[in-house]
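Reviewers of the previous submission asked for a worked example of the structure-prediction workflow described in the proposal, so we include one complete record here. The input consisted solely of the amino acid sequence. No template or homolog information was supplied to the procedure at any stage.
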Amino acid sequence: MADLRDIVREKLADNALQAALARALGIVRGKRTAAVSELASFEDAKAVAAAVRSNAVQRLKDYLPQLEARLADEGTHVLWARDAAEACRMIVDIARQRSVRRCVMSKSMVAEEIGLEAALKNAGTVVVQSDLGERVVQLAHQKPSHITAPCLHLSAAEVGRILHEKSGIELSSDPEKLSRAVARTLRPVFLDAQMAVSGVNFAVAETGNLVLVENEGNGRMGYTMAPVHVAVTGIEKVVGTLADAAALLAVLPRSATGQRATCYVSILPPRPFPGQERFLVLVDNGRSAAFGAGPMRDVLRCIRCGACMNACPVYERVGGHVYGWTYPGPIGIVLAPFLGPQEVRAEISDLCSLCGACTEVCPVGIPLDRLIVLARGLSHSCRPAAVVKRERSALEWFGRAMGGRVSYRLSHLGHKLARAWFPKKLARTEAELGWSGVRTAPGPAAVLFRSRFKRRAAAEDGTADEGSGGEV
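From that input alone, the workflow returned the following structure tokens.
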């Protein structure tokens, strides 16, 4: 497995990727700012949304059985999956029992999380992604790099080339022209699909409604036309009432794509459409572990808007693929200890500067910066014992060196002498500590701040000459 630092360097040197990220994220942030400014108080809307999600998470044990009962009474089959493997097995069984050979899949992060597309393909079912971005990365044999914009890492010209080579669409870099061309190729797919798979943005416990939002209408084409509709979602996506869902819809599109509302908001009734079977697969896959992890429970509030990625300075430089799994960016770091597969690198928790931008823009008030610090402890718990021992020894030494006035002054003096007498050895030591590879190690101050402060205060009082003496 390649070293994460090498992967990061590769992304930083990719000029095409850097240009695509800067352009796309710049546009999204600008649109979000404009959309947010239209509300009298977006902070008030965020507070309401945060309260809704916090209440929903706290009452999962009440809302989930209520949702199941409401849907079952109306003829929707509700299935519970403990993990990704069980969820895939359930959905593959649904397809096999109904001899499904052609499936259309609309955008679903949970379906991506559990590897559903691969599972259906292995079972002999042809799966076509209907979301434009998902279709592009599917044809390119890539993974999505963003929650709401799967092919954000590609330029329009690259998208046009992929569609031309893989689907025979006329070569173009015009987004509108490409969208219309893809829509034409998908029309027969919708007509022939025997099963449609979709995600769920919110499931309403009180009424049994499933709320789905999108901008293309392809998802709606799938789950209204196919004889079998499988909706797959995490257990945390339940809310109490339709009013709760409305409060979240006030902040979701503004935070995700900078829109007042998405082009299509579907509120599916609890009863399936005539002639259709509907299944709701509720996936745990580590969410219960997050629920029982104290303050980490707050991560279950997430509504998958992607705002934290759009604001993250690290994501803007490296893109989503560096994180190595379904959920990139700040939210991906926090979710990884619970939802991430074993092969997810522990080091992704280091892809954060702790600037707090993610927390500031989160529309449901998740303290992502604080949770990332906790996630680092969880993610790095399996590091080699020798590495942990070395780091602890270094931190203990640092604590003793900085732990008192005398020890601090002696350490400062030692640093000055080492820099003057043994510069090469000191440079080697700093390199071993990882300093020189990414930044220049700071040199010791000529005069300590405390000494300068005392001199300045004394000079202002007229009791000493500010320029007198010197002290290490």
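Residues 386-441 form one domain. We consider this example representative of the routine output the project will generate in years two and three.
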